[in-house]
Structure formats: C-alpha cells, structure tokens
Write a structure and sequence with these properties.
Blueprint (H helix, E strand, L loop, with lengths): L1 E5 L5 H5 L9 E5 L6 H4 L4 E4 L7 H4 L6 E4 L9 H6 L3 E4 L5 H17 L9 E4 L3 H12 L4 E4 L11 H5 L3 E4 L17 H6 L4 E4 L8 H5 L4 E4 L10 H6 L2 E2 L8 H19 L3 H12 L4 E3 L7 H6 L2 H14 L4 H10 L6 E3 L1
Parallel strand pairs: 1-2, 1-3, 3-4, 4-5, 6-7, 6-8, 8-9, 9-10, 10-11, 12-13
Helix pairs in contact: 5-6, 14-15
C-alpha cells in the first residue's frame, strides 16, 4: 500500500517512525506543490493540508481510496465529488481548537494592557462548537463574563444574536457556509456592524464571514487572523485592523501535532491494527504533545509570555504594508515564520 503525505504535516515522519504496525507500508512524502495528479496516481491514501485542493482534477483516474486532511476546516475538499466516487474522507476537526482559544486570550490580554477593555466587559461568542466551548471555559477560569450564540444548538444558556451585539467584544467561531438555514457568508454584514458600533470584533474563522467593505467604513475595532482574498488580503483591511496576523491562530505546536495524530489514528484503524498495538502507540504519541497547564497563580499575561500577538501583528503589518514585493510571497513567508508556541490549558 502506498500513502502520499504532505511534508508540511508536522512531524508525521518522525512520529510514525517510532510506532508499531506499519511495516510494509510505502510512505511517500511530497512538498505541497508536488501533490499533483501524476504523482499520486498509484497511491491508495492521500494525507494533505489545507493548501491542497481536493477535486476531480487531482483525484480522477487515480487509485486513491482515502483522503485525510490535517486541518480543522474542509473548504479545500470537494466532498460531493469524493462521495460520488465512494472515496472516504476525513479531517482533523477540533485539533487546533485550544490553539485558537490561546490566540483569542492573547488578544484579550493585549486589549486589557492598552485599556481598550477591562475584565468586567462581556465577551459574546458566536459558534458554540469545539472552539466556542473551550473559549467559554477559559474566560470563566479568568472570571471574564461571556455569553454564546449558536442557532444549531438548543442549550438553554445560549442567547439570540441581538444579545451578542450588545457585548463589548465579539469573537467568531463558525465555519464558512453559503447554504442552509443559517449561512455564515457575510454574516457580519452592514446591519450587524451598524448595530455593534464601537465594539471589538475578533475573527479567527474565515474571511468571508465578515463583509470587509462595510467593516472598513465602520468604527468597529477589528482583530483578524483571516481575510478575504487570501493569500493576498486587501491592504486597506489589514491596515485598519488593530491586530492583523496571517492565518496562524491554530498554528501552535500541539495544534499541528494533534492534526497529525488524527491522521495516524485513522490509518491504524484503516489497517486494522490490533488493539494492543494501538494502545502502545497511543502512549508513544502522547509524548509529542507539549502543553502548559495553568496554575492558580497565573494571570492573563501568561498568554503573552507564550505568544505575543501584538508583536506578530507589528511584524506582519510592517512586511505586508511597507514592502513592494509580491504580496502573496510576503504573506506565505510571514505564515512560515510564525513563532513556535505551546498550548496553554486549564
């Protein structure tokens, strides 16, 4: 069996080399740009990142039976096509949820430092999934009040969207969708923005969720890690954001490793490895997860100590706004230079 793996999937080769049960499996590691039709024709399994588009052009007339993505999103996967071809697919949903929470907490710490908000301000969370729940718990740990909205869930404590607009800070944690009862494309539109004047908005979801044209004309204080037209976001929106980063909110060490482990765990199941082998492997895999556990003495500045979001924003803005070079290249280079950071957990 031949498996194609994107070289950018963090530590895949290093981790699988210490595990049992993979003898006789041909592992072929390729750079992202090398994952093209002619190079994957004879492979059965394909493991990719969000930088590879999975569609008919790539997959048609290959032996691919399984596609796995080491990411928490699926925008790059043509799911309908794969299902029509009876090709199994999966992704690493929730793998970097804690990393995104840490990003938001580092942003909040910065806002407190510069006096834009205080700990009595209420945080409104849109989306109560993997990230929204963890963010709620983290805010509660630091005694910061919060409320959450999610139209797909019926928990009694969830509030309607109008209550969210009254919050001092609003944080987005939803997928990008264009269909269904509650599409999120341009969910933060002119009407929403007008109702939330002078508020703070953090976007770590997707660029298309926010109508950037309307946002530019508003007095909302914008913190964003995601943009329309990536990897060449519009200069004006990057310049206007009080914090701007190049789509790295989920890029902690643990966030990336978790995505890798999800791929490997699926592969173990696909190969039918014995339960005793998988239990031994699990112990070995846990050694690769490096996190920081909060103590009762830690303050919010613990997030800045591990990851200074303002410092990265200054660096990104300086490069992206002041250089005359290829903006796409600058954006990608800034992503690749994201500092190594550990997840902080309760």
């Amino acid at each position: 069996m031949k498996i194609i793996i994107d070289k950018g999937i963090k530590s895949f080769e290093k981790i699988i080399s210490v595990l049992d049960g993979f003898i006789g499996i041909e592992l072929c590691f390729l750079n992202t740009e090398e994952i093209i039709h002619k190079n994957i024709e004879d492979a059965e399994i394909l493991f990719i990142r969000s930088t590879t588009k999975i569609d008919k052009q790539l997959i048609e007339n290959t032996k691919i039976k399984v596609v796995g993505s080491a990411t928490s999103g699926t925008d790059h996967i043509n799911k309908e096509y794969l299902e029509r071809k009876s090709i199994k697919w999966f992704y690493a949903g929730g793998s970097n949820a804690l990393s995104v929470v840490n990003y938001v907490m580092s942003a909040i710490n910065h806002l407190l430092e510069i006096g834009v908000m205080n700990k009595s301000n209420t945080v409104g969370i849109i989306g109560y999934g993997n990230i929204g729940r963890r963010l709620t718990n983290m805010l509660e740990y630091f005694s910061i009040p919060s409320i959450a909205h999610d139209p797909f869930l019926d928990f009694e404590f969830l509030v309607d969207i109008e209550a969210i607009k009254n919050c001092d800070l609003i944080s987005l944690h939803v997928p990008l969708t264009t269909e269904g009862k509650h599409p999120t494309y341009n969910m933060i539109n002119e009407a929403f923005i007008n109702d939330a004047q002078n508020k703070i908005l953090i976007n770590t979801s997707r660029g298309g969720i926010v109508d950037e044209d309307c946002l530019i004309k508003s007095n909302l204080k914008y913190i964003s890690d995601v943009w329309m037209n990536e990897p060449k976001p519009f200069r004006e929106i990057v310049d206007g954001a009080i914090i701007a980063t190049p789509h790295i909110a989920g890029h902690s060490q643990s966030g990336k490793i978790n995505g890798t482990l999800i791929l490997i765990k699926y592969l173990q199941d696909y190969l039918g490895l014995d339960i005793s082998v998988k239990e031994k492997n699990l112990l070995k895999m846990k050694e690769f997860i490096k996190t920081i556990k909060l103590t009762g003495e830690d303050g919010l500045d613990v997030f800045k100590a591990e990851y200074d979001i303002y410092k990265e924003s200054v660096k990104f803005k300086h490069a992206y706004l002041n250089e005359d070079e290829d903006k796409v290249l600058i954006y990608k280079n800034q992503r690749s230079q994201h500092p190594s950071r550990r997840d902080i957990k309760i």
